[in-house]
């Protein structure tokens, strides 16, 4: 993929600087008609869809939930979570980005069939097929983000999505289009994914057989178009993963009025992806640290995925995450501070919640002992070591370092620092600064497993399989075993609830909270579940061996905020654009 991106860099730069989602001024840019004879220009339209993917960077909107706070007083998420979220001030807006991406993709569709992609007409046809498949998959992805960020109940009481944009718009188009229903948008998303799967291979490979639809084409020519050089671009497997994400959103309480079929669909879609990976047999503890050397990042070949990753961005060598999130003594800014709420959500190593004082063995005077191993893997707690020098991090109120609670503006506000996603082999010392490899996942398999568990539990109960080889219970058992939870005692807590749909739902949601923490899921999960958005973010004040729970930051969300707003400026311009209920 990197070769192709470099080849088309000039085309991408042409679009990345545009200030308008429609055709730029003629004197400054090539006209769309140039795409017919300029394949690089045409492909630039498609590649714009890749450059806008939201997960190309971390949002860390977790700091707007009960999982974390930030010490950055200028954070838009902090302001949003504390009462300043409006349709004019929306840090999680996707309206412009996703609709612009769809506009570029629609421009690509408008010219693709007329572009001369290669001298040989048969190879040109294959290139056209593949890139149209990519565009369909990307258009579906951006519809998912629009539904997640802006779908909701309109002031007319109807569950709405966004205006359907299926054609290239020009300055002469009628932009005053009404929002389609949520279900109509979902069906269009599914239709695009079907087309993507028809046109794309499951994976790009230099050894895959030539499919029947290209009978008569030799293998070398086929792999020139569908070979390993394009790993990282949209595939049928990725399209299936996008379908899972969309189906889970559509089945969730905020978007579903009790239709069990939607849960069944989500479970079936997830099972298909899981089966393609080999079921539940390939989970390893390396999956938990896909972001560091143990997880194999340093040895990844170009475009190759570790076992945990379904789709990812490119590997980059830097230390920006560590600069933002390392504690002050390691020359970081300590920006994201995990909450006590999240820390308490990690069970004991024996599998029992810490609230079960009879069975868990939790000790309030040694709260981090004998806990779920994921706690110290993902959260830097008091007394842990970090960095290349294994520095002991002291977060107590009387700490002699700036790592202590509220010592300076870069100190923790909760008594905890972020550890997940960070490379501990990065050194930020100004005299010997180092960098390491990082990448951003677009879809992880753990997300798919947890989607299946959630949907299967709702559709068939904890142990129902719907005809598949595994149940919600089986998936959660595998995930907890991988994490090292309940492995020494058979996980009696899980066994005690394996026939209780409500208790299993609570556990599945908690496992999702733990496994996907700090990756931008909690903010959306709470909303699609119609859950409590106003849980006060808490921390811990440690002094002389005493642990006192403290309130750190109140959450100020109103009930209608389970749905995001349509941008106020858009509703002013277009009177057919209905706002979501409760927003101005």
UniProtKB/TrEMBL annotation:
Q: Where's it mainly located?
A: membrane
The UniProt keywords, alphabetically, are:
Cell outer membrane, Membrane, Signal
Its domain of life reads Bacteria
- Ranges of residues in domain SusD-like N-terminal: 57-215
Q: Tell me where in or outside the cell this protein is found.
A: Cell outer membrane
Instruction: Respond yes or no to whether keyword Signal is given for this record.
Output: yes
List the InterPro entries.
Answer: SusD-like_N (IPR033985), SusD_RagB_dom (IPR012944), TPR-like_helical_dom_sf (IPR011990)
Q: Where is the RagB/SusD domain?
A: 327-583
Signal peptide range equals 1-21
Could you tell me which PROSITE patterns the record lists for this protein?
A: PROKAR_LIPOPROTEIN
Q: Which Pfam families does its entry note?
A: SusD-like_3 (PF14322), SusD_RagB (PF07980)
The Swiss-Prot or TrEMBL record describes its family as follows: Belongs to the SusD family.
Task: Provide the protein name.
Answer: RagB/SusD domain protein
| Organism whose genome encodes this protein | Pseudopedobacter saltans (strain ATCC 51119 / DSM 12145 / JCM 21818 / CCUG 39354 / LMG 10337 / NBRC 100064 / NCIMB 13643) (Pedobacter saltans)
């Amino acid at each position: 993929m990197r070769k192709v991106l470099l080849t088309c860099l000039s085309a991408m730069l042409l679009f990345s600087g545009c200030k308008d989602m429609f055709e730029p001024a003629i004197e400054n840019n090539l006209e769309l008609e140039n795409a017919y004879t300029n394949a690089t220009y045409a492909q630039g339209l498609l590649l714009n869809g890749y450059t806008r993917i939201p997960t190309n960077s971390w949002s860390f909107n977790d700091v707007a939930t009960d999982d974390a706070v930030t010490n950055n007083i200028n954070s838009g998420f902090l302001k949003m979570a504390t009462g300043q979220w409006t349709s004019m001030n929306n840090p999680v807006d996707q309206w412009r980005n996703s609709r612009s991406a769809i506009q570029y993709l629609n421009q690509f569709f408008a010219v693709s069939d007329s572009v001369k992609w290669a001298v040989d007409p048969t190879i040109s046809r294959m290139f056209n097929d593949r890139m149209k498949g990519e565009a369909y998959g990307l258009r579906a992805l951006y519809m998912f983000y629009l539904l997640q960020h802006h779908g909701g109940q309109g002031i007319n009481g109807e569950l709405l999505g966004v205006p359907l944009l299926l054609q290239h718009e020009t300055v002469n188009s009628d932009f005053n289009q009404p929002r389609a229903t949520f279900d109509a948008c979902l069906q269009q998303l599914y239709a695009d994914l079907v087309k993507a799967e028809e046109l794309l291979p499951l994976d790009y490979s230099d050894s895959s057989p030539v499919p029947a639809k290209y009978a008569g084409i030799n293998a070398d020519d086929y792999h020139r178009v569908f070979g390993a050089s394009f790993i990282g671009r949209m595939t049928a497997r990725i399209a299936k993963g996008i379908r899972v994400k969309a189906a889970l959103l559509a089945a969730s309480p905020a978007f579903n009025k009790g239709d069990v079929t939607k849960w069944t669909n989500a479970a079936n879609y997830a099972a298909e992806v899981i089966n393609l990976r080999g079921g539940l047999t390939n989970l390893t503890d390396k999956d938990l640290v896909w972001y560091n050397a143990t997880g194999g990042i340093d040895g990844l070949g170009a475009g190759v995925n570790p076992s945990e990753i379904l789709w990812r961005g490119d590997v980059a060598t830097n230390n920006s995450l560590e600069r933002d999130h390392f504690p002050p003594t390691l020359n970081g800014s300590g920006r994201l501070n995990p909450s006590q709420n999240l820390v308490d959500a990690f069970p004991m190593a024996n599998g029992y919640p810490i609230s079960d004082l009879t069975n868990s063995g939790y000790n309030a005077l040694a709260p981090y002992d004998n806990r779920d191993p994921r706690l110290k893997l993902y959260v830097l707690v008091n007394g842990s070591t970090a960095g290349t020098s294994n520095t002991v991090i002291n977060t107590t109120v009387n700490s002699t370092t700036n790592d202590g609670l509220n010592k300076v503006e870069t100190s923790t506000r909760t008594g905890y620092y972020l550890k997940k996603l960070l490379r501990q082999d990065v050194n930020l010392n100004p005299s010997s600064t180092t960098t390491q490899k990082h990448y951003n996942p677009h879809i992880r398999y753990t997300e798919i497993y947890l989607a299946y568990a959630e949907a299967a539990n709702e559709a068939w109960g904890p142990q129902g399989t719907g005809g598949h080889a595994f149940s919600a219970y089986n998936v959660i058992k595998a995930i907890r075993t991988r994490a090292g939870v309940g492995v020494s005692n058979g996980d009696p807590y899980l066994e005690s609830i394996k026939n209780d749909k409500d208790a299993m739902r609570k556990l599945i949601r908690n496992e999702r909270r733990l496994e996907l923490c700090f990756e931008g899921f909690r903010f959306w999960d709470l909303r699609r579940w119609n859950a409590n958005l106003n849980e006060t973010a808490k921390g811990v004040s440690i002094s002389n061996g005493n642990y006192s729970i403290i309130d750190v930051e109140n959450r100020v969300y109103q009930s209608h905020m389970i749905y995001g707003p349509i941008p106020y400026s858009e509703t002013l311009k277009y009177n057919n654009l209905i706002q979501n209920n409760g927003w101005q």
